[in-house]
Amino acid sequence: MTFLIAAAGTGGHVFPGLAVGEALSTLGVTREEILFVGGDRLEARIYPGAGFPFLGVELRGFQRSLTVRNLSLPRVVWRARDLIGARMRERGVRVALGMGGYVTVPTALAARSARIPLLIAEQNAGAGLANRIVSRWAVRSFTSFPNTHGLENGEWVGNPVRQSLASFDRDLLRPQALSHYGLDPDHPVLGVFGGSLGAGLINAAVSGLLEVWEGAPIQVLHLTGEGNLTPVTVSTGIATWQRKPFEERMELFYAACDLVVARAGGGVAELTVTGTPSILIPGEFGSSGHQALNARFLETAGAAVVLAQDRIEDLPRRVEEILFSAARLAAMRVAASEIAKPEAAMTIADAMLEMTR
Q1: Which residues of 6-24 are buried (b: 16+ CB within 10 A; e: fewer)?
Q2: What is the mean pLDDT of the chain?
Q3: pLDDT confidence bin for 70, thresholds 50/70/90
Q4: Whole-Å CA distances, 43 to 61, 103, 177
Q5: What local confidence, expressed as pLDDT, does residue 123 receive?
Q6: Max mean pLDDT range (52-61, 66-75, 180-189, 207-216)
Q7: Residues 308 and 173 in one domain
Q8: Which segments of 27-117 does DSSP mark as H helices, in order?
Q9: CA gap 128, 120 in Å, rounded
Q10: Which residues contact 183 (CB under 8 A, 6 or more apart)?
Q11: Domain hosting residue 327, numbered range
Q12: Within this chain, do residues 110 and 182 fall inside the same structural domain, yes or no?
């Protein structure tokens, strides 16, 4: 008996999928019985590296601009569907989970043809195109936000996070985290990331922030994304800027940070389960304006402040007014924790197991 999880592209899809796979493993399913399906990006390294079987298929998304590339898209989808369907039969797959994104469509088509129960999980407050398309065939749809747009029958369980974040204890991890990064416990730490691939606009904004910074001493821990700013530690006397392309142990990153500047993709779930205050800069992309919806939910709850891309020059002022206010940081930590759903991965894994009984 095999469980199939389709998750591909960015960390916003890949790591929630990995969290569900690890939850299934915790519940007694061997890793050999958990097949991941994706393309040739981050997932092709992450899943095999974690000890899971992986099926790579060709993936391509619909281009919203007029282009002849869209004419070949159906052929790409059918070819992926056939490959996934063949592997489903070969491995005796009993239930499939789609995490959204391009790979979910051929996976859903293959599951429907094989009469295998399909579950879907949506990471954003506005459902992506793939999940909106296949939701009609899903026996259960899980959402990361209440009242997710585009999934009328969605069950709010939260966005799956790995166990190291689900069981996060800031006070316990803080000394280790500061030592890990070589940070001074007497000065506040501003964390920055733009998602697993980074964000050029945020990287540039942080560079600009440090050029004009005249406030109290500040430490910046910046995950730039692979292929962006060169890893380095820069000190200007009142500011220390430590740049890294990626962080495998995100629990240490959150434990070290007092405030985080980030995009507002599905990864905002990590901010809530770790109780981390944030300034969110939603990306103006996607079919449903999902990042703006995600950010608005956290801001309404009191866990975050939203800064529009066209007001990015306000970042230094917003950082200073929040980072050096102990009362405001404490209130935002409480607010973030109150909307957290740390058991999401286990809830979805339980549901997958239930489908096989």
Answers
A1: bbbbbbbbbbbbbbbbbbb
A2: 91
A3: very low
A4: 16, 11, 27
A5: 94
A6: 180-189
A7: yes
A8: 42-49, 73-91, 104-114
A9: 11
A10: 177, 189, 219, 221, 240, 242, 256
A11: 168-338
A12: no
Both 77 and 207 in a single domain? no
Two tokens, residue 195: 């998602």
Same domain, 143 and 239: no
Q: What is the pLDDT of residues 260-304, one digit of tens each?
A: 999 998 889 999 999 999 999 998 765 557 899 999 999 999 999
**Whether residue 47 is found in the same domain as residue 157:** yes
| CA–CA distance, 198 with 227 (Å, rounded to integer) | 9
Strands, E assignment, 138-293: 140-143, 155-156, 189-193, 218-223, 232-235, 239-244, 259-262, 278-280
Please tell me the predicted confidence (pLDDT) of residue 288: 53
Q: Give me the residues paired with residue 294 across strands.
A: none
Residue 200 has pLDDT above 90, yes or no: no
**Which candidate, 200, 236, 211, places its Cα nearest to that of 316?**
211
Inter-residue contact 9 to 17 (CB < 8 Å): no
Return the number of other C-beta atoms located less than 10 Å from residue 294's C-beta. 28
Query: Which residues are within 8 A (CB) of 90 and not within 5 positions of it... i.e. 6 or more apart?
Result: none
As given in the structure block, the two tokens for residue 274 are 């770790």
Q: Are residues 176 and 250 in the same domain?
A: yes
Say which CATH number the domain at 243 has. 3.40.50.2000
Question: Beta-strand (E) ranges in the chain?
Answer: 2-6, 34-38, 54-56, 93-98, 118-122, 140-143, 155-156, 189-193, 218-223, 232-235, 239-244, 259-262, 278-280, 304-306
Q: How far is residue 201's CA from residue 90's CA, in Å, rounded to a whole number?
A: 45
DSSP letter (8 states) at residue 92: T
Domain count, the chain: 2
How far apart are the C-alpha atoms of 256 and 174, rounded to whole Å? Answer: 6
Same domain, 283 and 193: yes
* Cα 299 to Cα 65, 191, 310, distances in angstroms: 32, 18, 18
Task: Give the pLDDT confidence of 127-164 residue by residue, as tens digits.
Answer: 999 999 999 999 999 999 998 999 988 999 999 999 99
Tell me whether residue 185 is exposed, middle or buried, using C-beta atoms within 10 angstroms of its C-beta: 0 to 12, 13 to 18, 19 or more.
exposed
Cα(71)–Cα(248) distance, integer angstroms: 39
**Count of Cβ atoms closer than 10 Å to residue 36 Cβ:** 28
Assess whether 118 and 223 both reside in one domain: no
